[in-house]
Amino acid sequence: MDKEFSKLFGARVRYFRNLARLSQEQLAEKLDCEPTTIGYIETGKNNISFAKISKLAKALGVEAYQLFIFDRNVPEADIVQEIVKLSETMTTTQLGILHKFILSASNMNNKKE
After folding, report:
1. Contact partners, residue 41, CB within 8 Å, separation at least 6
2. For the chain, which residues make up each domain, given as ranges?
3. Which CATH architecture has domain 1-70?
4. What pTM does this model have?
């Protein structure tokens, strides 16, 4: 595999692993491999077979194709997914602040139109 491709793929794996709030050890356990293997995949030093991509995606809670979206701009669906995941562990107070922030940002957008 191309080195740049491996690095981009690894960055996506790391992104979704962090989004899923999994350590390298926890993800390795789900994939029945060593934590160092996850580290090597995330840094682009190790490739993963197509046979294991489906298992990896399932462990990360994403569709396999999402691991291959290398656009430098994070896709809108990923941003929404990340906000939802982060909000699941927020307190009521934090959720209230987030809600006010989103409303404020939305109102700023409406004023520009």
Report:
1. 9, 10, 13, 47, 48
2. 1-70, 73-113
3. Orthogonal Bundle (1.10)
4. 0.67
